[in-house]
């Protein structure tokens, strides 16, 4: 049995706490919100964010960050990506050397263009920063539907330890050393999912969705490989797999926010309606900046930014994408003549 702490009591944090507890581990869940802690202690269910998923009474809920961090074998950092740095700063005094901190949020910091695991390493140099991601919605993990993710770490030992803690008959975990590729796939797919939602909101069909998914993974892969990631990662669970589920699922908050914008909502109105953190909005500007830094063409992500931050109508953005200069699909393929 391992001692584990989950930092962040949203839907994903609660779902992963349930996985760890059912696997026989000791689990403490921290929230910064006193009312959230009180609600979880009383009901052992996150009524707002994960209704219908009953959490074991053996799970401890606390507002004391030291209690959730100190002496744990593994920590799951499940705060929204926009708060990764601030929460990591608060955690730092309670972390021992080589303590594993698993980032499960998805995003890129706009100001620094850093991935979340790099933020953790910067704020907590003692920590062994790792990631867990893939095509997974908390609502389905909480219902114990079959789900497959990837544990990414700089060493095989850490990745396999994570695998042993999380894996069970309905929660399969692979391992990977390509943490950068995993994090870029997880963060940038949220931006593409906003575009897919906009297309849904405009009433476009499956043809449009398939094009956005396919060309979206092409954009993500170009950037990730330019930054040093492995192309195979982007064709796997944390690339194409994560992109498909986020663009197509009714559970996807990014798709839902995009759909509302396609129907005429502003970005802020859409975020207010979703009532949960829309990670793609926070990663969109960073994605464009990375594309410019590495001289990578990212037309879909650029158009999403114009809809989000320049009030460009979603329909105009789609039209501009369709009317771009003629191109070949794969420029590295050779013609016979």
Q: What's this model, at a glance?
A:
The chain is an alpha/beta fold and 337 residues long.
Mean pLDDT: 94
Global shape: globular
The secondary structure category is alpha/beta
| Low-pLDDT segments | none
Number of helices: 16
Summarize the biggest pleated sheet. Answer: 8 strands, mixed
Please give the share of residues in helix: 40-55%
Strand content: 5-15%
Radius of gyration: 20 Å
Description:
The structure is a single chain. With 337 residues, the chain is of the alpha/beta class. 51% of the residues lie in helices and 12% in strands. The chain has 16 helices and eight strands. It has helices at residues 11-22, 34-43, 65-69, 84-91, 116-123, 138-142, 156-166, 179-201, 206-226, 231-234, 237-248, 253-262, 267-274, 279-293, 299-309, 314-322, and strands at residues 3-7, 26-30, 60-62, 74-77, 100-103, 128-133, 147-152, 171-176. An eight-stranded mixed sheet has the order 3-2-1-4-5-6-7-8, with helices on both faces. Helix 8 (179-201) packs parallel to helix 12 (253-262). The longest helix has 23 residues, at 179-201. The N and C termini lie far apart (64 Å). The model has no long low-confidence stretch (mean pLDDT 94).
């Amino acid at each position: 049995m391992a001692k584990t702490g989950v930092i962040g009591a949203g839907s994903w944090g609660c779902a992963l706490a349930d996985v760890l507890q059912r696997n026989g581990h000791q689990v403490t869940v921290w929230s910064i919100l006193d009312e959230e802690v009180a609600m979880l202690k009383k009901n052992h269910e996150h009524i707002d964010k994960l209704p219908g998923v009953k959490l074991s009474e053996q799970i401890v809920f606390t507002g004391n960050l030291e209690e959730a961090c100190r002496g744990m074998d593994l920590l799951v950092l499940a705060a929204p990506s926009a708060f990764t740095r601030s929460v990591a700063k608060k955690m730092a005094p309670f972390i021992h050397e080589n303590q594993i901190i698993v980032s499960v949020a998805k995003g890129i910091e706009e100001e620094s263009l850093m991935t979340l695991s790099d933020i953790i390493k910067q704020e907590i140099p003692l920590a062994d920063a790792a990631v867990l991601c893939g095509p997974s919605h908390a609502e389905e993990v909480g219902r114990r539907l079959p789900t497959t993710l990837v544990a990414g770490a700089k060493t095989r030992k850490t990745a396999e330890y994570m695998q042993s803690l999380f894996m069970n008959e309905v929660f399969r975990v692979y391992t990977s050393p390509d943490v950068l590729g995993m994090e870029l796939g997880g963060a940038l797919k949220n931006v593409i999912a906003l575009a897919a939602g906009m297309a849904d909101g405009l009433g476009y069909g499956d043809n449009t969705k398939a094009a956005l998914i396919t060309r979206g993974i092409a954009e993500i892969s170009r950037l990730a490989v330019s930054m040093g990631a492995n192309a195979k990662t982007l064709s796997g669970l944390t690339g194409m797999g994560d992109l498909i589920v986020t663009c197509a699922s009714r559970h996807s908050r990014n798709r839902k926010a995009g759909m509302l914008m396609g129907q005429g909502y502003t970005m802020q109105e859409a975020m207010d309606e979703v009532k949960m953190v829309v990670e793609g909005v926070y990663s969109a500007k960073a994605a464009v900046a990375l594309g410019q830094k590495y001289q990578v063409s990212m037309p879909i992500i650029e158009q999403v930014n114009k809809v989000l931050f320049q009030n460009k109508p979603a329909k105009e953005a789609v039209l501009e994408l369709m009317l771009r200069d003629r191109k070949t699909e794969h420029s590295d393929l050779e013609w016979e003549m």
